[in-house]
Amino acid sequence: MSVRRPVVAGTFYPAQPERLREQIEECFNHPRGPGRLPGETRSERTIHSVVCPHAGYVYSGPAAAHCYLALAEEEKPDTVIVLGPNHTGWGTPVSMMGDGSWETPLGCVQLDTALAKELLEHSEIIDYDHTAFLREHSVEVQVPFLQYIYGEFKLVPICMGYQDLETSREVGEAIHRAAEGKNVLVVASTDLNHQESQQTSNRKDRLVIDAILEMDEERLQRVVREHRITTCGYGPVSAALAASKLAGANKSELLSYYTSGDIIGDYSAVVGYAALKITR
Prior knowledge:
Protocatechuate 4,5-dioxygenase, Chain B, twelve-stranded mixed β-sheet
């Protein structure tokens, strides 16, 4: 059985289990985070998907914690599909892992082989290809947070090299059809605009956030293209929006937004981070 080993442990997040748990909790308690740890009470699930950043925890962890607090306080899903962009160029246009397990310093998560097979059956563009994940961080950084709030769950990682509207909608429809009648959560992993001034990034990021709040993946794709916004995971977000709407979700809510400049005080060339939830 194959095991996907962590590749950014020790850089994006701590490699030691105890220190990793401590940093996750620091993200929850951070001034830019939600300000508290998850409680014990869980309500009925209303969240179909979340949009979550994927930088190093020092930077984007407090924003991510807003998503994971909201998820922790609802019923646990059986399987989490994590959609991330392909930063390396390795693998097929849309790559998926469906066999074996995914390891982090907090332990191993089993991949949901049955759901992965169904996704493959419902899409002509999704392929099995582990090479896309060998050095890819966009999915990996979500998994320790998921382990922290859920303990045991199953995982289906998907890495999108093609992020156009047609591909995104096909992936979204495949997720909807494969997940119908099952207890599945979707996590779309993305950072927002990269390496422009705070003022420019705030303006560009607002265009992206507004498109997500309108639950309009076509508008999202258009503003990214027309305004040359370097949001790296607009395809995963588009796919999550498409899947969520097919499942009956009708509301998107912004939980957190800030930039790397708000963390380190350098506003000359920032990266934007946003956390949103999409609910039924």
